[in-house]
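Subject: Sanity check before I submit

Could someone independently write out the structure tokens for this chain? I want to compare against mine line by line before I put it in a report. The sequence has 165 residues.
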Amino acid sequence: MMNFMEKSALWICKILACFAGITLSLMIALACVNMISRAVYVPVKGTFELMGFFGAVTAAFSLGYSQLNRSHIAVGLLFNRFPKPIQIFLEALSGAASCLFFAFCAVETVKWGLFLYDLGEVSETLGIQFYPFVFAVALGCGAMAFVLLLDIVRTLTGKEPIKTA
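---
Independent answer below. Compare away.
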């Protein structure tokens, strides 16, 4: 069962990371086009809105994959001074707090997305619906919580982290 969940987490996070890369590429292209069009004629309408939407998706969708690769900043100076059983306990406790945080963020962000859906809230310049991007952030937070949950289990069982390559 654990192997299936690890493979699922890897698959989900890789797909989300690909979408994060696409939205980052769109941000770069939009910024370049906007700079050129601003110098030549007029700036691209709605650039500020699109950069915000794409930035939210890029950040949220890269969370899980970054956690799988251990790309986030981790401070182990204090933990490394304790005996191994206490280190394991503290790492699991830290992972549990992080997992609960991201699970809470995912749930509350879904609630916010549903609220925006009911309101029909749209962006000011382009009239783009907000809720799909809010749900995308919730998905990224949910993926991060899932990876952190698997990290807790791996920490407590002494298994090695998932290999992403």
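---
OP: Matches mine. For the report I'm noting this point. The longest helix spans residues 2-40.
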